[in-house]
Design brief:
The chain starts with a helix and ends with a helix. The chain contains 15 helices and eight strands. It has helices spanning 4-15, 28-38, 43-56, 60-65, 68-75, 82-98, 106-109, 117-128, 137-146, 156-168, 175-188, 207-210, 268-276, 324-329, 334-342, and strands at residues 228-238, 241-246, 257-258, 261-262, 279-285, 289-292, 297-309, 319-322. Strands 1, 2, 3, 4, 5, 6, 7 and 8 form an eight-stranded mixed beta sheet that branches. Helices cover 43% and strands 14% of the residues. The structure holds iron/sulfur cluster. Iron/sulfur cluster (SF4) binds at residues 142, 145-146, 189-190, 195, 197, 200, 202-203, 206, 208-209, 214.
């Protein structure tokens, strides 16, 4: 039987994806950007974001020179904003320490902010033809099934088994085609919910298929109930505009514009007086929004507020009044942007 890699490479040449906007280039910057955008995000969602991003920031230097605020605006709606912060920080590092060019080896690439071992190997493979194993979510699933590796892939021990399996099947040549094949096969054939084993080039020796365990592998994350948090956000309106506050540099949604926030049982009028020196009328409570983070679930309770008496303190740095339309194109967290669409 031909090797795992040989079968994947042959499959890729016929069935793989070749027309994505970040393919057919050796430009490490574009490859890096696509790899970061594709983490936790589907290809179809990424394409328009990727195209807008490269149109505005065509290379590492342009990204490094851009204000973070502008980068976040281009990321707004993609979620997992830490990725955008890291991209920006890594672009600056590349300019300051590497003359604006990408290092050619995966180990040095992996030292940049926000680039893990798998992403570094993918960039080095696609940009420089460097031989190295990748292990993104799709590849974990594919290898867990094909090699019959049980256990949650996020578990350290299982993860090292998967890395070892990924290293073992690595070909000596055609690393770019092979790397793309792993990604494409995981994304289009060995999918999470409905794997198409009848179209799979490595079905004949797939342990999960042969032992009838395709639906069981990879093992799911051990069940754990996520903690719940709740917060109230204020839709403070004045003369057709809404008040936004810059989120702190650390914590969730860092650096984005969001609505002023307070504990659900805090007194709204007192808060507006102390924080903005403003008299307000508390209006309608809008239906709550549920938003899931990796480590907790957040219920957001939006509350309409009308300003009765205005004080200049609310013009302070870190605060901005935006019309609804302007808010829709600003760097807002996705649940707040969704709220803007319905108010
Ligand atoms: S045979 Fe099925 S389960 Fe096994 S690798 Fe192929 S698609 Fe995945």
């Amino acid at each position: 039987m031909k090797s795992f890699a040989t079968r994947l490479i042959a499959w890729q040449r016929i069935h793989g994806r070749r027309d994505l906007p970040w393919q057919g280039t050796r430009d490490a910057y574009r490859i890096w950007l696509s790899e970061i955008m594709l983490q936790q995000t589907q290809v179809a969602t990424v394409i328009p974001y990727y195209e807008r991003f490269v149109a505005s920031f065509p290379d590492v230097r342009a990204l490094a020179a851009a204000p973070l605020e502008r980068v976040l605006e281009h990321w707004s709606g993609l979620g997992y904003y830490r990725r955008a912060h890291h991209l920006h920080a890594a672009a600056k590092t590349l300019v300051e320490r590497h003359g604006g060019a990408f290092p050619r080896d995966a180990e040095t690439i992996a030292m940049l902010p926000g680039i893990g071992r798998s992403t570094a190997a993918a960039i080095a493979a696609f940009a420089f033809g460097a031989r190295g194993a990748i292990l993104d979510g799709n590849v974990r699933r594919l290898l867990a099934r094909h090699r019959g590796i049980a256990g949650f892939p996020g578990d350290k021990k299982v993860e090292s088994e998967l890395w070892a399996a990924a290293e073992l099947v690595l070909p000596q040549r055609d690393i770019e085609t092979y790397t793309q094949a792993l990604m494409d096969l995981g994304a289009t054939v060995c999918t999470r919910a409905s794997p198409r084993c009848d179209r799979c080039p490595v079905a004949t020796d797939c342990i999960a298929r042969l032992s009838n365990r395709v639906a069981e592998l990879p093992s799911p994350r051990p069940r754990k109930t996520l903690p719940q948090r709740a917060v109230r956000v204020l839709l403070i309106e004045r003369a057709g505009a809404i008040l936004f506050e810059k989120r702190p540099a650390a914590g969730i949604w860092s650096g984005l514009w969001s609505l002023p926030e307070l504990d659900v049982d805090a007194d709204i009028e007192t808060l507006c007086k102390t924080r903005f020196a403003t008299d307000v009328v508390v209006g309608e409570a809008l239906s709550p929004i549920e938003h899931g983070f990796t480590h907790f679930l957040l219920t957001i309770h939006p509350q309409r507020i009308t300003v009765r008496k205005w004080a200049s303190r609310a013009e302070a740095p870190g605060l901005v009044w935006l019309t609804r339309d302007d808010a829709l194109s600003a760097a807002l967290p996705s649940p707040i942007k969704a709220l803007m669409r319905r108010v």
